[in-house]
Amino acid sequence: MFPEQKLGYTYEEYKVTADWLLANTEHRPLIAIICGSGLGGLAEILKDQKVFSYSDIPNFPQSTVHGHAGRLVFGTLKGKSCVCMQGRFHLYEGYPIWKVTFPIRIFRLLGVETTIVTNAAGGLNEDYKVGDIMLIKDHLNMPGFAGNNPLVGPNDERFGLRFPCMSDAYDSDLRKLAKTVARDLGYSEFLKEGVYCVLGGPSFETIAECSMLKRLGADAVGMSTVHEVIVARHCGMRVFGLSLITNKAVMDYNSESKANHEEVLQTGRERASQLEKMISRLIEGIEPNNNNVC
Ligand SMILES: O=P(O)(O)O[C@H]1O[C@H](CO)[C@@H](O)[C@H]1O
Ligand SMILES: Nc1nc2[nH]cnc2c(=O)[nH]1
């Protein structure tokens, strides 16, 4: 007989972590931000910070990837209370998918209404350049096709429905707002909108894989985000997502370029200040939702 496999945390385990955070900070965030690879500087937009190392938070997984600091930063932006993950979790780190998405339900229990997900991604769309910012309008969940979905296992109705809808995963009003913000900042030239595809990683894609993903309708490819978005939508949070195109996916057998994590982090550093400005303005424009689930 195989030992019984744990399929997730219990509601009580989520509560222990959320209650510990509520007891250790006065912040009551309505907005959460997840920083992608090399984008941890986004947390610097928050004032009156209260910072926790993941290692100090009960039940929290640890960051193991270069460019993911492993800190939870609470703070305010123009009077709005926010929480920011400097470091996310990925399947390729060896975490089961329910650990990868653990912080999302914690955010919900803290009272978060809107989650902003960011990531570094390879551009598959030929019109994309390195440094472009892609608003995510939809996703392709490749691990999900193989049964690795974060909602697998018993459903806890206290979080959400057994069969949540995903056709409206990325909030269209927030995307509209982001386009207005980008236009006002003079960023329209490098703003794109497209479909993000998640793969398990950690190896980057082969040329044949890139060509397949492009034909399937993906504009950018990465190793994160989608699992978080599914859990956030399951528990009724609004989601806004963006990908920084850190490298162009290699599509040509004669190409000399090779995807690498250093290039990913370097592009993040180069676009950091524009991303900070854009997300700050976006957050300024997000209206509270009276904790209504949507
Ligand atoms: O998705 P984020 O965490 O931004 O990071 C992306 O960049 C890393 C590869 O360089 C992978 O972890 C990929 O998912
Ligand atoms: N899978 C994948 N993840 C990335 N993250 C940043 N760039 C890439 C890429 O080209 N492929």
Unreliable sequence segments: none
**Helix amount:** 25-40%
Mean pLDDT: 95
Label the CATH architecture. 3-Layer(aba) Sandwich
The CATH homology group name? Nucleoside phosphorylase domain
- Summing up helix and strand content along with how strands pair, one would put the structural category as alpha/beta
How far apart are the first and last residues' alpha carbons, in Å? 42 Å
**Main beta sheet strand tally, sense and closure:** 5 strands, mixed, barrel
Give a count of the beta strands, DSSP E runs of length 2 or more. Answer: 9
Using the CA coordinates, give the radius of gyration: 18 Å
What is the beta-strand fraction? 15-25%
Could you walk me through the main structural features you see in this protein, from its secondary elements to its overall organization?
This protein is of the alpha/beta class and 294 residues long. The protein has a single domain, classed as Nucleoside phosphorylase domain (Rossmann fold, 3-Layer(aba) Sandwich). The protein contains eight helices and nine strands. β3 (71-77) and β4 (80-86) form a beta hairpin. It starts with 10 loop residues before the first helix and ends in a 9-residue tail after the last helix. Bound molecules: 1-O-phosphono-alpha-D-ribofuranose (R1P) and guanine (GUN).
What keyword list fits this structure?
single chain; 294 residues; alpha/beta; Rossmann fold; 5-stranded mixed barrel; binds 1-O-phosphono-alpha-D-ribofuranose; binds guanine; EC 2.4.2.1; purine-nucleoside phosphorylase activity; Purine_phosphorylase; glycosyltransferase; Pur_Nuc_Pase_Ino/Guo-sp
